[in-house]
Amino acid sequence: MxxxxxxxxxxxxxxxxxRRTAAGAGLLGADGRVAPTIxxxxxxxxxxxxxxxxxxxxxxxxxxxxxxxxxxxxxPRAVIxxxxxxxxxxxxxIAAHQARFYGLDIDPxxxxxxxxxxxEAMAASLLALVEPGQEVVTIDPFYDAYAAVIAxxxxxxxxxxxxxxxxxDGHPNGFSLDVAALREAVSDNTRAIIVNTPHNPTGTxxxxxxxxxxxxxxxxxxxxVITDExxxxxxxxxxxxxxxxxxxxxxxxxxxxSAGKTFSVTGWKIGWITAAPELxxxxxxxxxxxxxAGGGPFQVGVAAGLGLGGEVFDAVRSSLQDRRDLLVSGLRxxxxxxxxxxxxxxxxADAAPLGFEDGAQLCREMPERIGVAAVPVSAFTxxxxxxxxxxxxxxxxxxxxxxDSIHQAVDRLQKLH
Length: 417
Ligand code: PMP
Ligand code: GLN
Hints:
The chain has helices at residues 17-24, 38-49, 65-72, 76-83, 88-102, 117-129, 144-152, 179-185, 208-221, 277-287, 296-306, 310-333, 359-370, 386-390, 403-413; strands at residues 52-53, 112-115, 135-140, 156-166, 172-177, 190-196, 224-228, 253-258, 271-274, 337-339, 346-350, 372-373, 375-376, 394-398. It is α/β, with parallel strands linked by helices. It starts with 16 loop residues before the first helix and ends with a helix.
């Protein structure tokens, strides 16, 4: 094999399930080469061009000092306990958090599994529950990891599109779940529906009526609902509604969250699953062979964070909301149509009014041309599905960056005119 760097990504001759994993995420080329994820690609482009990175969703701010301090200086007792297989203090903190914010009564011993981030939680859940050939419905656009792991499990991903809604002026102004399309996506062979609310990339928060319908459809089919709620605290339009709070959810809903977004510690990878004991038992049977346990000091930090006063959660939310507002008005003045997000790290904008119909192409050009990186919404849509075409000109910008970065990015974006 040549030692040239450009040859490192050679068409891999190795066969195996990795192929369907990469293909599931749309990363396996016809020539056998594996492309990087859109986040890796755009961050590399931002780095090589020196562009401001409003692509990959990692925050600039350091997060609440109480969380960082607790992780940096865990008590000797906490360190010893985190060396043990299953650290009870984080599970106790998660149960208390679910009770305090959502009124949920969860047994920390039998109904919680701590994971290495929401990503591992989702992977373990899908690998534990989905048999080869079974279908998993995802709301489209969807976070890339779902497609990859559904494929690894041998499952079949079935998209249920979000609709792009338009105001009286004809401009896009929101996203809404097409419940009829969701019903159509579900079949006798559906094993699970993945629900991501608040949603990446659109910032949509599903309301109670939508969640009730999804739960009803799942129960009719005997399917599970696996929720990804990592943006649960970053909400600008009223509180998040966890699916697990709906009547009848228990035994059907597997709830996933993590600390990364709430406490601006996206590299810590501390997540958790809450579900009925029989589901936790099933998922734990897989999870314990991925990583038995990990991130000891981070677990201590997150346990401290989950117990912080409401004012800390409010401060995180309102600081993020200010930066969202800054980005929204900057994108508007640059000529984009902006779909104002109700939650999360990202703002989606339509580049069509600026004459850019292909968001992916724009994202590949922007770092060099104006010094700003973003990611196309098309990277989150099913190839060949309705949203691949309908959302082609949409671009996702991260507002989880410093106000200074956003100010500078907004200045540069004015040059797209
Ligand atoms: N789900 C969604 C919707 C996300 O945006 C992210 C962002 N990284 C993740 C899961 C991954 O979470 P974690 O870092 O806890 O694995
Ligand atoms: N969730 C983040 C995003 O959507 C990060 C993804 C990643 O780093 N793989 O940008």
